[in-house]
Design goal:
With 261 residues, this protein is α/β, with parallel strands linked by helices. The protein contains eight helices and eleven strands. The model has no long low-confidence stretch (mean pLDDT 90).
Length: 261
Amino acid sequence: MQPSPPLIEFRNITVRRGLRPALDGFSLSISLGEHVAVLGPNGSGKSSLIKTITRECYPLPAPDSYVRILGEEVWNIFDLRALLGIVSTDLLESCTWDITGLEMVLSGFFSSVGVWPNHHVTTLMEHKARELLHLLEVAHLAGRSIHEMSAGEVQRTLIGRALVHGPKALVLDEPSNSLDVRARHELSGALRNLAAGGTSIVMVTHHLGDIIPEIGRVVLIKHGKVFADDSKESVLTAGLLSRLFDTPVEVTRRDGYFHLW
């Protein structure tokens, strides 16, 4: 049997945002089934990494440089969205009208935010959406407006939206932003259940506490380059993280979670 191609493979790419390179000679490979965290300070290139995966940004053409998803460099964007479930609160910026939790999850079938009049929602789609709301322990939000939800509740409906196609991996962009302690705890529990169920978790964050115990590999990025890439235990050290964030830090560990001080 031929080995499966990497889920995500970047080879020596440079992505410009304005006048400066946001990713600079950047290489990264993530295997299918692997749980990985990409950690870096603000301005390190994390958002550009996400936008390159989702094809919102494209690297400069260069010899021996490519972006491949599951071994392919060219994708129909709608096919790609069915393979990678993207969770980003940026999606809410395009939502200027009132939608419910159920409609948010259903919209994943149409690569939209919310259900539009031209969308045909089947009974099977609605069943799947309600099943995911139940799995994420937010079935009570099916009829509630997203404008009446807490940040943590909105985040879990966005995860449901990303999961409707049964994607190969869930890609999370700063998942705990704006969440309080309880919401972070609930989010971690939901992600741990998904990881245990076989969904790959690729998490891009600057919060060490976001990294669930199931994530075994951590990639540190700084100034658009890979700063370190190894096992969680080898990378999440006071020395490396002090250099990453340009400030002295201490690292503690409890119940499989790492914390920064």
